Structures are given as structure tokens and as C-alpha cells.
Amino acid sequence: MCHCYGLIADAIQSNTQSLDSSSSSVPSHRRLVYQKVRDARKRPIRGLWVRNGRFYARLSVRDPTSGQKKVRRVPLEAVETVAQAQAELRRLLTLREENELPSLKRTPKFCDYVGEYFAFYEKVKDAKRPRTLATERGHLKAWTEHLGETRLNCITKAMINGFIAKRQSEGVSGRTVNLALGALRNVLNRSIDDGWLTRLPTENLRPLKWTAKKRELVTLADIDKLCEAAVKHTMNGVEFADYVHLMAFCGSRMTETLALKWSDVDWTNRQLTIGADGQSKNHESRVVDFNLMLEQHLKEMWQRRAPDTQWLFPSPKRGDQDRAAKSLRVTLVLARKEAGLGRIGFHDCRHFFISMCVMSGIDYMTIARWVGHQDGGVLIGRVYGHLCNEHAQRQAQRVVFGPTVMGAVAAEN
């Protein structure tokens, strides 16, 4: 049952209907007027009315949009006796005092509110990144098709579970369904901020368990082959090769890497600061300590840097304005085709870096700090832990049991 206090048309209509019926030409026995509810002593109970056998609470509340106080008659759901009506009235008054009373306007439909949700974030600059909003649009489109014109306060857990079951039956992965649930929660949380809801229908809803597909590890030879193809067959192949190698040697993400400036390179302390502009995924900067390959690569890039730019990867069409490159994806597609490397992408460079760190025996917490994970290495252990096993198995094959080894140990002692 939808507990939509004040959201039914009767509640809105009641504000315009006069309690004084003396001027009406309709006979009183045919007129559905509001009457005061009385107690056992026939005394009127303040704030309670009845009409056609249904109880109403008369409340003075503040309109969430205009801030003005208005008087509303709120229909009381599942109330059959005077005692129940009094208890419900007391509950509503408590909610009003705690500022938790649901909005007395008609709750918007989900499909309409999704439009308001995106309109809000398009006006509020830097609240959400364009890529984040684009991802949410895809998930919320599926939610809109499923929920139809259901009003926000009538969304139930059964409806949400129905969506989950439907998506899984269509072969959608558990990870994608969890992301869709996250998008729904964002909208519903926004509706709480706007006063339409007081609690989420997704409470106590556990995310789906899913197993990540084992990703084929990209090798340094694959990365070099891709970069060689870019240099030979594209206009900005050198910049592309620098871009790909840098991500492979420090584990930075695509957009983070394009935003790097030479001021982010600390040659003295041998460190690279990523996200100094606050535009990293978690809006926090991090420091990657130089490894040998990263330091060598940065020095080579410094030697051939353009003198008129502060960016590591300046836009080739910057003109008089010093701007960073927006994307090198077109070059990736061309280079990948020429190199015959299938679906290799920029994010594979990040996976390459993390994998090499894991197989080099570096602790997960340090790797997490370098790549910007805030879980202390839990995700790395779950996704890349198998690499340690494979690495350990390969190392185990190097163990030799024989007199040569024993002799070498004796010589060392």
C-alpha cells in the first residue's frame, strides 16, 4: 500500500472545499462535507476530521518549495477508529516536529523526476562529471522503462527485485546490475533531499555477488607493438606512445594522465603527483614514486617536450591557447588495427602496471596508494591475487634439490 499522505487528489481538493455549506443549493443529506471528529464526551478533537467515513488530519506545514506555511487535510491510511486516528495524528505531528513529514504535494512520477535529477546536475557545475552522468543516463533509462510512471513514494522493494531478476534473465552481469542499483539510489537519495521521501526503498538490499572475468594480461611487448604502429601510421604517434607508456609505468587512468603538467613531476624527490587539480576519480591527489622505467620515460619525454606548453600531453590543435589533449582514442583505434592487437585499450595499461607490481612482490597497500584505491589494497587482493599464485608457482619450478645447491650454500656460509 502506498502511504502517500497528502498526495491523493482528495487531500488537495479538501483545501478548496468550504466547511460552510449554508450557501449551497445541494441538500445537506447529499453533501459530502467534512465534520469534526468527537471523543466519547462528544467534544471535538482538534485536528481530526471525517468525511464519508474516512478520517483526515488537518495540519499546518511548510511548503518545501516556497517556504510558506499552508494548511492541508491529510487522508489517514488504514485508520478505522477514532483511537487509531488520534494515534496517527500524533505520529504525523511528531514527524512534523522532526522535519520528517513527507511532502504534502503530489509526489512526482519516477520518469519525470529522473529528468529533474539530470537538470539539477547540469546546472550545478562540477557536482558530477559528464562521463558519470552519461553512465547514469544509460542505467536510469532501463529503470524508467521498468518502473514506468510509478510515483517515487510507491516504489517498493518488490519492484526493484523484479528489475534485478529481469536484467539477470537477459544475461546482464551482476556488476552491471549493481551499478544500475547505485544509479537508482542516487536518484532516490536526491528525492530525500528534495523532501519527497523519508527513507529509501532499497534499504537492506544487498548487492549481487559476481565474479570478474579473468582478464588476459597485456605484455610489455604488446604495448611496444601498439606504440610502434601508432608512430608509423598516425600523425600524433609519438605523443600517443608517450601516453600509453606512461600509464603502463605508473598505473594512472586515462583522463588523469591527460591532465598531467610538468609541475606535477618532482625530480628531486623522484615522484609524480596525479590528480593535483582535484579531478581524479575520487577527487584526491596521490603520489607515485618513481620506478626505473617511469623515471627513464619521463626524462625522455622531458628531452623532447614542446617549449610552449605546461602539459605533458598538449593538444596538437591548441593554437595560441595552452590546452591539454582531450582524447587519443582515434589514434588507439588506428594503431590497434595496424598492430592486429584486437581489443587492447588504455585501461589495460593500468592493469599491466598493477599486475607487474603484484608479481614483483610489492605489498597491496603500497600499490593501492599508487593507483588511487582507498580500500587499502582489498580490491587488488581480490582481482589480482591469483597473479601471486601463478608467480609463486613459476618460482617454485626454480627450486633445485641437489649437491650443487648444497655446495653453494656451504660456500656462502
Overview of this protein structure:
This protein folds into 3 domains: 9-97, no CATH class; 110-193, DNA polymerase, domain 1 (Orthogonal Bundle); 220-396, hpI Integrase, Chain A, CATH 1.10.443.10. It is of the alpha+beta class and 413 residues long. The protein has helices spanning 9-13, 82-97, 110-123, 130-147, 157-169, 174-193, 220-233, 237-250, 254-258, 292-303, 329-339, 347-359, 364-371, 378-396, 403-412, and strands at residues 35-38, 44-51, 54-62, 69-75, 265-266, 271-274, 286-289. The longest helix is centred in the middle third of the chain and has 20 residues, at 174-193.
Radius of gyration: 32 Å
Structural class: alpha+beta
Q: Estimate what percentage of residues fall within beta strands.
A: 5-15%
Mean pLDDT: 84
Instruction: Going across the biggest sheet, name each strand in turn.
Output: 1-2-3-4
Total domain modules: 3
N-C termini distance: 81 Å
Q: Sketch the major β-sheet.
A: 4 strands, antiparallel
CATH superfamily of the largest domain: Intergrase catalytic core
CATH architecture term of the largest domain:
Orthogonal Bundle
In the predicted model, the low-confidence regions spanning at least 5 consecutive residues are: 1-30
Instruction: Give the helix level as a range of percent.
Output: 40-55%
